[in-house]
Amino acid sequence: MAPYESDDSARAEEADDRLAGRRKAARYVVPVAVVGVAAATIGLVPALADSGDPDLPKVTAQQLIEKIAQSDVQQLSGTVKISTDLGLPDLGGLESGLLSGAAGGRDGSSADPQSKLLELASGTHTLRVAADGPDRGKVSLLDDAAEYSVIHNGKDVWGYDSKSNEVFHSTSAESGHAGEGADDKAPRDVPATPKDFADEVLKSVDDTTSVTVDGTAHVAGRDAYKLVIKPRQSGTTVGAISISVDAKTGLPLKFTLTPASGGAAVVDAGFTQVDFSRPAASTFAFTPPKGAKVTEGDDPKGAKGGESKGGEPKDFEKTLPKGFEKALPKGHEGTAEDLGGSKTIGEGWNAILVLETGGEGMPSGASGSTGNSDVDGFLNSLGDHVKGKFGSGTVFSTRLVNALITDDGTVYAGAVTKAALVKAADAAQ
For the whole model, what pTM was predicted? Predict the structure, then answer.
């Protein structure tokens, strides 16, 4: 509604112009304010809309962390939206292909959970999730005209890609312990819900971390507290992490990680709808559709006709540092057992994984080639050639994790800045 009304058309037009001018100015003023404040904190948007925030009893950060730890939600169903922006270049899907290749090779089944769920590493995705205790769970990745589902029902883990009509099947060694003793292809290490992300982050809370409660919010129609986690250290690429915690159940409903460089969140995962009643048993029932190609994950010889080969994922993993995720802050030194022979230096959010590969780094430095033009283009788009006391090497950067590969084959990686990696490499000389 206009501030006032008049029969004089000229005055009305002038009023409209003024109002339009104020609206236009607001569009520019608000983003500037957001950028300025976001550099120092997280969760700004809910804070601006505090008129809708629920009035909940005061709690301390410690009480809220304990509430998360004590949460025992066994049954739920709902919809989760995940947006991931690591800052990777757009190479027409090549980066997704590389990630899928890392998980199981391009020759494997398109229904293999380890490769399929890695699509969550970039872009925006909608998931339907359901759980009924430790024995039953389902995650469905929704596409425009297709759906991919992972179903855990007792000892069976099924992956089904409706687009290709392919099925992947593996079994757990023990019923009732999802992920423990399961076949290597079970998606036990792929975070898909806010709780998955929150559990990993809370492991890193130590004296290098600031943890506070920053008000309340409504998430998926639920009252929630906002827990904010910030590094106390400089040199990390992590700006802050916000976790919205259901006030009644203690279940994390939303997880947001913003980089120290500012801008859009690197990871933003949250429920848009959630129901804590028990899902129907039929939710977890699965029978391969007629005509579907079925690949058995525990077949040591694999199957013919392009189906997945049992040894491929394990062989690839041998080329990577086991437990690479432990390069993220844990507040303690890694061990050779934890990291497959590698080690970590530094502590907290500034922890850096160091891996001695015993071989050469990037082929011929800046002018080198892997022999694959697509891969060369991908690597060169990320690479930044650096020099120091350690010699020379290439830094590969994302908005969160950076890695320095020296020309002698040593790898330094972590959620730290390029300068921190070069400093660590120099200090190792």
Answer: 0.69
